[in-house]
Amino acid sequence: MFESVSVDTTIEELCTKKELSQFSDYFFTHMTEDVWKRRIGDYGNERCGLLPAIKRIYEVMDENSQVIYDVYPKEEWEKEPDKEQVKLIHMPGDPDKPFVLVCPGGGYAREWVLVEGYPIAQQLNRMGYSAFILIYRTGQKNLLPKPVEDTAAALKFLDANRDKFQIRMEGYAVAGFSAGGHLAAVWGTKEKGYGAYDIHKPGALFLGYPSISTVQFLKDMERASDSERAAAVKYLERIGGENFTKEGLAEYSVEYLMDQSYPPCYLVHSKDDPVVNIEASYLMEEQLKCFKVPHRVRFMEHGGHSFGLGNGTELDGWLADAVSFWEEVR
Hints:
Blueprint: H1 11-15, H2 33-36, H3 45-48, H4 50-63, E1 68-70, H5 74-79, E2 87-91, E3 97-103, H6 113-116, H7 118-126, E4 131-135, H8 146-160, H9 162-165, E5 167-177, H10 179-187, E6 204-208, H11 214-222, H12 226-240, H13 246-249, E7 265-270, H14 279-290, E8 295-300, H15 318-329
Parallel strand pairs: 3-4, 3-5, 5-6, 6-7, 7-8
Antiparallel strand pairs: 1-2, 2-4
C-alpha cells in the first residue's frame, strides 16, 4: 500500500489510489490542473516531511474506522451549501491530552493540506498529541468571517465529542500557516475570535509565515509587479470583497485586534518570503511585546514560503520547540 508511494508519484496518482479515496479531495482543496500533474517531490518532500505524513495517513486508516468528520450537521447544508466543505481530519495521539487544531494555508483560495496539514499532524502525533486538520471554507470573494465561523463550529463539535476523541479542551492550541496563520491569529482575538463565539481561549497559537496584517499586504500589493499584484488583489478580495478599502481590510488586520489577553504565541517566518512579507511578523512581535504576551519567535534568512516543518533549514525542529513552549505556558 504505502510502499507504492514515492517522491515521483503525481498528485493525480495519489488521489486516485483506491485505498486513499476518502482523502482525494483533501490533499489540496479546490485542486487545479497544475497541482494535479505535479509530483510529490515538487512540493518539498524532505523539507516538509511529505512521505512520512502519507505513511501516517495509512496508519490512521488501519487503526480507525472513521477519520474525516462533517463539522456542520447535514440539515444546515441545505440553507448554506458551502458548509458541506467544512471537515475535520482526525489524526489521533495519546488519550487525555489537549489537542492542536491545524489550519493549512492557501490564500483563502484552497488549502495545501499535503504540505501544511498532514506533516504537522504526523509530527504532533509523534509527540503524543492529537491533531485535527480543519478544512474551512475557501474560494469565495468576501469570504470572511466564514472561516472563523468554521473554526468556532469545529471547536464546538470537538467539545461535544471530547470523550469519543479522548481529548481535553483545556489548553488546546491552534496552528496556522500563511492564510491559515491569519485565521489562527484572528481566532486568538477576543473581538473577532474565541471571545465572539464564547469558546475557551486557546492555550497557544503556532503561527507559520502568517499573513496577519491585511493592511501590510495592501501596502506590499501597491508596490508589486503586475503579475504579483493580480494574485494579491484576489487574496484581498476574499477578505474585503471586490471593492476592498484599507479601512475595510483593517477589520481583519490582527495587529488592530490584539490586547493583553492575546494567547501565548509561537511565530516562525523566513526573511526572504516572497508571498507574505516578514514585516507583518515583525509587527506582530512588537504587539506581543507591547501587551506583554508570552511569545517566542524564530526567523531565518532563507527559506521562502510554504516551508512547513522546515526540515533541513535554519528552522529545523521548530514544531518541537513550539510544543515545548506550549507545555511551558500551559
